[in-house]
């Protein structure tokens, strides 16, 4: 999948909020588990995150945990989903390749801007 040129790096996102089940949060409050979901656009599992202005209406479950993109980059592993989906279903949705090699490239681009 090609990434649109205007979204060549996720560096514009300061904090991304990950969807987490309430049960997972309550049972393991000191750990964070990536919970990928299937995305038909990429045809792969993806980690879904939202920017603060795009969060869905609050409900009891799920909850959201916010982290910097640096945290995601440091936490990503070869077993993590191949794409990060930002604001799915919104007009500003974006798909970022998110392998460790891509995270290194995103970091390099962010330093240059």
Please, what is the average pLDDT? Answer: 81
Helix content: 10-25%
Residue fraction in strands: 25-35%
Number of helices: 3
Task: List the uncertain runs.
Answer: 1-9
Q: Indicate the overall shape.
A: globular
How many distinct domains? 1
First CA to last CA: what distance? 25 Å
Give me the strand/helix succession: EHEEEHEEH
Number of DSSP strand runs: 6
Radius of gyration: 14 Å
Major sheet characteristics: 6 strands, mixed
SS-based structural class? alpha+beta
Task: Give an overview of the whole structure.
This protein has 113 residues and is an alpha+beta fold. The chain has one domain (13-112). Helix content is 23%, strand content 27%. The chain has 3 helices and 6 strands, in the order βαβββαββα. The protein has helices at residues 22-27, 69-75, 100-112, and strands at residues 15-20, 37-39, 44-50, 63-68, 83-86, 94-97. The longest helix is centred in the C-terminal third of the chain and has 13 residues, at 100-112.
Chain-wise SSE layout:
Blueprint: E1 15-20, H1 22-27, E2 37-39, E3 44-50, E4 63-68, H2 69-75, E5 83-86, E6 94-97, H3 100-112
Parallel strand pairs: 3-5
Antiparallel strand pairs: 1-3, 1-4, 2-3, 5-6
């Amino acid at each position: 999948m090609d990434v649109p040129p205007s979204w060549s790096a996720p560096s514009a996102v300061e904090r991304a909020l990950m969807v987490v089940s309430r049960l997972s949060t309550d049972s393991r409050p000191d750990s964070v588990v990536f919970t990928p979901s299937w995305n038909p656009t990429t045809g792969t599992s993806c980690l879904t995150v939202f920017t603060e202005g795009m969060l869905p209406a609050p409900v009891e479950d799920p909850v959201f945990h916010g982290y910097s993109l640096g945290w995601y980059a440091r936490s990503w592993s070869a077993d993590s989903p191949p794409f990060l989906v930002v604001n799915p279903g919104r007009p500003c949705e974006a798909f970022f390749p998110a392998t460790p090699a891509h995270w290194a490239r995103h970091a390099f681009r962010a330093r240059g801007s």
